[in-house]
Design a protein that fits this description.
Largest sheet: 7 strands, mixed
Distance between the termini: 36 Å
Structural class: alpha/beta
Order of helices and strands: HEEEHHHEHEHEHEHEEEHHHEEEHEEEH
Strand order of the largest sheet: 4-10-9-8-7-5-6
Number of strands: 16
Helix content: 25-40%
């Protein structure tokens, strides 16, 4: 069966709204490499959107999952729980930033984790309002679409959305939005739209994912922490894409030395198995009544043992430190490309192995080069690469290599990317 034949079947069988970036059908994958049904090899710089931080099919994760399947696959953690869920919650409570006592709940997706943060914050505070940021992405449920600060494709045609959601600018120096601008906008919200005593939570990505891989300056996250403390607001860090070593810390907010009240975890948590969590301060996490939180598949025993294995791999292979080295290597290579093409590459930025290259027209940060970005993605497979785009205007190439990627494969992939880029612009 060819890629083209499978794509034809897919178009007939699966709704168009669930599209695919590449008409490339994977047959097997190992660490940072994929092979399609036609036998072609690809270097994966997307890792399933920051999911396989420990690489595809890490032997330790595979072994843990196989052993669990020999015992049982599901009982529902809310009916007949199991030790792996308790052990994982204990570990997540320990590694979450800050010294406060923590508790955990398990769900299945990142969107569920964000939505449960709002539920918990409202139960704890007795308040209604939630503040999020322009360019943020928090999921595809009705509530998380309301929180998401980008219309197309995530919100278009899907309203009306949940109420009592307010947005402020996210600080992005490259686009002229300062920390002062963002904080001033929140002050205006307090004057115009909702009083701080009615705000249950502020939800923020320490590095915007879909928004363009913009890292919040440490002073911004610190100011949000102070603002929330002042007004009794729950500070929620959405670490779905930034967690589990991706940014050179276990969690990105550690770069700012900020302890959130609640934080979301998903994507890299379980090496490719569906699992997500909310971890937060015990007194806040315990606000909902028994039965108020949960879900049939949340805390799957298969996902829990996979996540425990992921945490072991991260420690044994020092993947947090490895993320810093990967980020430095990518930054150096992409910055050299920027020196060659300053009119096309506006900025190269990274926090650890969360790496971005923003494409512009005539060196102007306010002229996004969406066409070139789309061309790079469209031609990546021909060059043996898997790449992802993001950004408010779809003009950012994001790189999310496995933290286990070898130096030789990384160098090969970067060389392929340079050839791809130059083939389109020279």
């Amino acid at each position: 069966m060819s890629n083209a034949e499978l794509q034809s079947r897919k178009v007939q069988a699966i709704a168009r709204g669930q599209g695919n970036a590449y008409p490339v059908y994977v047959e097997r994958a190992l660490n940072a490499e994929l092979w399609d049904v036609e036998g072609k090899r690809y270097i994966d710089f997307g890792t399933g959107i920051a999911v396989c931080n420990t690489g595809h099919s890490h032997p330790k994760v595979v072994a843990a999952v196989k052993a669990q399947l020999d015992n049982f696959s599901h009982t529902c953690v809310m009916v007949n729980p199991y030790e792996s869920a308790v052990a994982l919650a204990e570990k997540l409570n320990r590694i979450a930033p800050g010294d406060s006592d923590k508790k955990t709940i398990f769900v299945t997706t990142g969107a569920e984790a964000v939505e449960n943060c709002v539920k918990i914050a409202r139960a704890h505070t007795g308040r209604r309002g939630v503040i999020a940021f322009n360019g943020g992405f928090h999921g595809r449920t009705n509530l998380t679409m309301a929180l998401t600060g980008k219309i197309t494709p995530y919100k278009h045609q899907f309203g009306p959305f949940a109420g009592d959601i307010f947005h402020a600018p996210y600080p992005v120096a490259f686009h002229g939005v300062s920390v002062k601008d963002s904080l001033k906008a929140i002050e205006h919200l307090f004057k115009v739209d909702i009083a701080p005593c009615d705000v249950a939570a502020i939800v923020v990505e320490p590095v915007q994912g879909e928004g363009g891989f913009y890292a919040a300056p440490p002073e911004f996250l610190q100011a949000l922490r102070a603002l929330c403390d002042q007004h009794g607001i729950v500070l929620v860090m959405d670490e779905i894409q930034t967690g589990f070593g991706r940014t050179g810390k276990m969690f990105s907010c550690e770069h700012a030395g900020v302890e959130p009240d609640l934080m979301t975890m998903a994507k890299g948590i379980a090496g490719g198995f569906p699992l997500a969590a909310v971890v937060g301060k015990s007194e806040i996490m315990d606000a909902p009544l028994p039965g108020g939180l949960g879900g049939t598949y949340g805390g799957s025993p298969v996902g829990c043992v996979a996540a425990l294995a992921v945490l072991e791999v991260m420690q044994e292979e020092q993947l947090v430190e490895r993320a810093v080295k990967i980020g430095d290597t990518f930054n150096q290579a992409l910055s050299a490309l920027k020196e060659q093409y300053p009119q096309l590459i506006g900025e190269v930025r990274n926090q650890g192995a969360m790496i971005a290259m923003e494409l512009v027209i005539d060196g102007d940060s306010e002229q996004p080069n969406t066409a070139l970005t789309q061309a790079i993605i469209a031609n990546a497979a021909e060059h043996g690469l898997v790449l992802l785009a993001c950004g408010f205007y779809g003009n950012v190439i994001r790189f999310l290599p496995a933290l286990t990627i070898g130096d030789e494969i990384m160098a090969e992939g970067l060389a392929k990317f340079k050839m791809l880029f130059e083939s389109l612009v020279d």
